[in-house]
Amino acid sequence: MIMIPFNKPYLTGKETQYIEEAVRSGKISGNGMFTQKCQAFFEERYGFKKCLLTTSCTDALEMAAILCDIKLGDEVIVPSYTFVSSALAFIRQGAKIVFADSESNHPNIDVDKIEELITPKTKVIVPVHYAGMSCDMDKIMALAEKYNLLVVEDAAQAIDSYYYSADRSRPVCTGSIGHFGCFSFHETKNIISGEGGLLAINDERFIKRAEIIWEKGTNRAEFFRGEVNKYGWVDTGSSFLPSEVIAAFLWAQLENLDDIQNKRKQIWNQYYEGLKPLADKGCFELPAIPEYAENNAHMFYLVLPSLEKRSKLISYLKENGILSVFHYISLHTSDFYKNKHDGRDLPNSDRYTDCLVRLPMYYELKDEEMERIVNLLIELYE
Q: How many CA atoms lie within 13 A of 15 on its CB side?
């Protein structure tokens, strides 16, 4: 029996060709031709004011935390049901994390519960666009304006995702609405470079400093553009930029973005149509798509009625050669932060911790493999 993996990185065929071009160019340390091509692609296609490639989404979040000027004791509102980087980037700057609950019908942050968490110490809201589906950014940005807060969109899963705002005639790119957007190109994402990320700076006030922080706290980028006659250490920062090898790999993916997205959406829709009859019978919940969000087909998940039933489902699929996985464990219950949490119950976050399961989702998932997964689930429940 051939095992169907949970994820399989997809190669377009030009990755090694572009990597060889980067190596032969003699410029492989970063911020070369492929880095600039990738950054320009995102700025032109999605309307970001400034884009900087990073070695990971975690690095993009850490850059955003520095740019938000987080100090010891500042408070940052983060959903508990997310990856550790969403919180860790701000903890490293001395912040106190105030965890928010998820919505009852979606793992995204419950926007209607954010305002009650805001105090005079609150400085940042971090909406995480789970499964690539946007949070209600109109409400979040209204709160940010009301309380003079910054918004860092954790869009790790949200490449090529869009948001419909009530006062706009067309959708806008997820990650372009807050002051910053942070993306991931980890091998489990739609568009990959093994490890890699992107910081989108959507507020012009932060662009100049972002380049300095990106280049180890120096004004090196200005020097290479001929804007200063020498460069030196002018601010804090780190080595956040990736090598040209990573950027070259990413460029091969970006050239095929539309093809990759169309195939993933086809697979997602096949799952949804095949499993909807079981969901209608109450066997599990299917992913919910808010009316203001588009689906970028990052993942396909089910929400089971209980931890016990999820465990049985994962075991059943594994016994039949299919690898499925559960996802995050609520951060407010983690060994690292549970003693720092204020004690509030976050029942929706805990429900997704116990009940959400992710099915295999990747470009090369074949029709017959899809049918096998769906039919096994039908057999299990019928």
A: 13
Which residues, in sequence order, are CB contacts of 171 under 8 Å at separation 6+? 162, 163, 164, 165, 294
Question: Which three-class secondary structure string do you get for the chain?
Answer: CCCECCCCCCCCCCHHHHHHHHHHHCCCCCCCHHHHHHHHHHHHHHCCCEEEEECCHHHHHHHHHHHCCCCCCCEEEEECCCCCHHHHHHHCCCCEEEEECECCCCCCECHHHCHHHCCCCEEEECCECHHHCCCCHHHHHHHHHHHCCEEEEECCCCCCCEECCCCCCCCEECCCCCCEEEEECCCCCCCCCCCCEEEEECCHHHHHHHHHHHECCECHHHHHCCCCCCCCECCCCCECCCCHHHHHHHHHHHCCHHHHHHHHHHHHHHHHHHHHHHHHCCCCECCCCCCCECCCCCCCEEECCCHHHHHHHHHHHHHCCECCEECCCCHHHCCCCCCCCCCCCCHHHHHHHHHEEECCCCCCCCHHHHHHHHHHHHHHHC
Residue with tokens 């160019």: 25
Reply yes or no on whether the pLDDT at 193 is more than 70: yes
With a CB cutoff of 8 Å and minimum separation 6, the contacts of 276 are 286
Entry pTM: 0.96
Q: At what angle do helices 307-319 and 347-355 cross, to 10 degrees?
A: 20
Burial class (CB in 10 A: 0-12, 13-18, 19+), 205: exposed
Strand pairing category for 122-125 and 150-154 = parallel
Burial of 26 (C-beta count, 10 Å sphere; 0-12/13-18/19+): exposed
- Interacting residues of 353 by C-beta distance below 8 A, sequence separation 6+: 81, 326, 328, 329, 330, 333
Give residue-wise pLDDT tens across range 130-171. 999 999 999 999 999 999 999 999 999 999 999 998 876 678
Q: What is the pLDDT of residue 169?
A: 66
* Per-residue pLDDT reduced to its tens digit, 37-90: 999 999 999 999 999 999 999 999 999 999 999 999 999 999 999 999 999 999
